Amino acid sequence: MSLLLLGLAAALPLLPLIAGLLALLGTSRAPRLVWAATLAAAVIAFATTAAVLVYGTAWVRLMPDSGLSAISLRLDAISLVMVLLVTSLGSAILRFSLHYLAGDPRQNQFFGWMGLTLSAVLTLVLSGNLLLILLAWIATSLCLHQLLLFYPERPGAVFAARKKFVVSRLGDLCLLGAVILIYRHYGTWELESLFRLVAAGDNQPLPSVGVLLVLCASLKSALFPFHSWLPDTMETPTPVSAFMHAGIINAGGFLLIRLNPLLAHSASGLAVLSIMAAITAAFGATVMLAQPTVKRALAYSTIAQMGFMLLQCGLGAFGLALLHIVAHSLYKAHAFLHAGSTIGARSPAAIRLSVPTLSFGVLAGAILVSGCATLWAKFAPGGSETSIVFLLILSLALAYGLARLGSSDAGIRSLTKGVLFAAVLVLISLGLHAAATALVPPTPAWDPSPWVSSLVGAIFIGLFLFQALLWRSRNWPLGRRLYVHALNGFYVGTWANRALNRLWPRATSL
After folding, report:
1. What is the Cβ-side half-sphere exposure of residue 489, based on CA atoms within 13 angstroms?
2. What is the pLDDT of residue 63?
3. Helix, strand or coil, per DSSP, at residue 192
4. C-alpha closest to that of 361 among 288, 286, 285, 419
5. What is the 3-state secondary structure (H, E, C) of 418-439?
6. 190 bridge partner residues
7. Which of 60-69, 107-116, 282-291 has the lowest mean pLDDT?
8. Integer distance in angstroms from the first to the last C-alpha of the chain?
9. Cα dist. 204→187, 207, 216, 246, 272 in Å?
10. Which of 101, 126, 106 has its CA nearest to residue 16?
11. Per the count of CB atoms within 10 A, which of 177, 274, 379, 394 is most buried?
């Protein structure tokens, strides 16, 4: 059985790698070759998952007697969920690209670099070794850089690629520093050995390692204030945007989930991550509402979602963050590939929300969430308490949705159906929250301090009030000024562009 798992695991990154290299060499019918290789990898991913479900979690080492200890793959719930996600989305996006780039003279280069990028991402999520994680992390960024330069004649695309390149190198340095600290103390690259040593109580370097990992993930996943490169990369082809926003941008969250046994021992790192992520979620959601173009609005939506996903990591809900990655990836890939169909849709910011409907939404949301959470904890098998922060955020989300429903022309019957649907949604959310704990091995409990929870809660309450009252902003001078500032992303990107111009002037060659 070990040989079967070895072959299946090795084939996952090798198939898109070989097809991508052939495409760059100019092989005829290269686009369909890369798509077929990725589709085959998706089939193999399902077969590998079935094998692991039957035989259990496995570490797969390639050439174990050669001294190349860095070549090891981890087949567990985390890696298999990510592999299924990456291969399925990759094959769908490449199938879309066959028509999107039909007749483009650089079509082979696009599919070639897409194949190499997919191979690097699959290697990253399968890695069972810190050194291989570092190499795959860097390779993913370098391959994506070539895709961002698909239109080298566009100055905006080149400048955005440069900004992403600089931010990525800073993230690489943070990850390199964390890997060096870990190896110097523990003397091993292998995650299996490392997790065993940490579980035994040897966690002396982990507070510093946790801070470096948090910074690395923040740079990779576009947390505030390192986010401005993401909205600027919209001049790349839409399939690249879909793959970047649905896949690669999640790498920071995946890194923290994979290394959660280490991160759980860094209270300062988790506290910093919680605050940064909450600010990012509120910032992205605010700026998103002011964007006039579909793709930039989707970009800021991604920033907000990355903030919320990393907030889950910061609060210790690593399994829930993994489910968030899956849900966001599926939604965002669909949103980018169907971006044209949203033109002319009514903006949520234009919906009038009166005080009575807001009061109804807040009251109904609070009652539904508190009641369902109480019932779940009491009667559900293995029911457990859910973080108060997540319950507050869920209540605010339901309050906004129910207030919008109450502001529409829906009658009592439709409103009743909406409330019942919201109750079912709460129960599903609680069920997913409970199921998520089975996806990620248990780690030492991280109990955020009251000031962290209070600050995160205050940020989301402020975001709810802003979104609820945004439609009134045109009537207030302060609201009109805030809209202009939000339209320009509060000028964080402008400051970043000025800094990049000093570091890497536009006149130089790339």
Report:
1. 25
2. 56
3. helix
4. 419
5. HHHHHHHHHHHHHHHHHHHCCC
6. 129
7. 60-69
8. 48
9. 14, 7, 20, 36, 19
10. 126
11. 274
pLDDT tens by residue, 204-222: 888 999 999 999 999 999 8
Query: Which range, of 181-185, 285-289, 435-439, averages the lowest pLDDT?
Result: 435-439
Q: Given CA atoms 94, 96, 98, 101 in this order, what sign does their dihedral have?
A: negative
| DSSP bridge partners of 337 | none
Percent of the chain with pLDDT over 90: 27
Element at 261 (helix H, strand E):
helix 260-263
For 288, residues 6+ apart whose C-beta sits below 8 A from its C-beta are 297, 300, 301, 303, 304
Nearest-angstrom CA–CA distance, 237 and 247: 15
Q: Is the pTM of this model over 0.85?
A: yes
Element containing residue 58 per DSSP (H, E): strand 58-61
Structural tokens at position 296? 């930039």
473 vs 399: CA distance, rounded Å: 20
Q: How far is CA 345 from the centre of its chain?
A: 26
DSSP 8-state code for residue 105: T
Q: Which residues contact 71 (CB under 8 A, 6 or more apart)?
A: 61, 62, 63, 129, 132
Contact criterion met (CB below 8 Å) for 85 and 325: yes
pLDDT at position 292, please? 79
Q: Which of 34-38, 89-93, 417-421, 442-446 has the lowest mean pLDDT?
A: 442-446
Token output for 472: 């009134």
Residue with tokens 């949301």: 365
Residues 387, 267, 254, 287: is their CA dihedral positive or negative? positive
Positive or negative CA dihedral for 60, 62, 66, 70? negative
163 touches 506 (CB < 8 A): no
Which helix (H) or strand (E) covers residue 161, if one does? helix 155-186
Q: Looking at 315-442, list the stretches that DSSP marks H as alpha helix, in order from N- to C-terminal side.
A: 318-337, 355-379, 388-407, 412-436
CA distance 126 to 245: 20
Instruction: For residue range 407-427, list pLDDT tens digits in order.
Output: 666 567 777 777 888 888 888
CB neighbour burial string for 397-424, b if at least 16 within 10 angstroms, e if fewer: bbbbbbbbbbbeeeeeeebeebbeebbe
Confidence check: pLDDT of 509 > 50 = no
Convert 240-256 to b/e letters by CB count within 10 Å (16 or more is b).
Answer: bbbbbbbbbbbbbbbbb
d(CA 226, CA 249) in angstroms, rounded, equals 13
Give the C-alpha separation, 325 to 483, whole Å: 30
Contacts made by residues 144-148, CB under 8 angstroms, sequence distance 24+: 144/117, 144/244, 144/248, 146/109, 146/113, 147/110, 147/113, 147/114, 147/117, 147/236, 147/237, 147/240, 147/244, 148/233, 148/236, 148/240
